[in-house]
Amino acid sequence: MAKFTKKQKEANAKIDKNKLYSLEEACALVKEITNTKFDASVDIAVRLGVDPRKANQMVRGVVTLPHGTGKDVKVLALVTPDKEADAKAAGADYVGLDEYLDKIKGGWTDVDVIITMPSVMGKLGPLGRVLGPRGLMPNPKTGTVTMDISKAVSEVKAGKIDFKVDKTGIVHAAIGKVSFTSDKIVGNARELLDTLMKLKPTASKGIYVKSVYMSSTMSPSVQLDPKVV
Question: pTM value?
Answer without folding.
Answer: 0.81
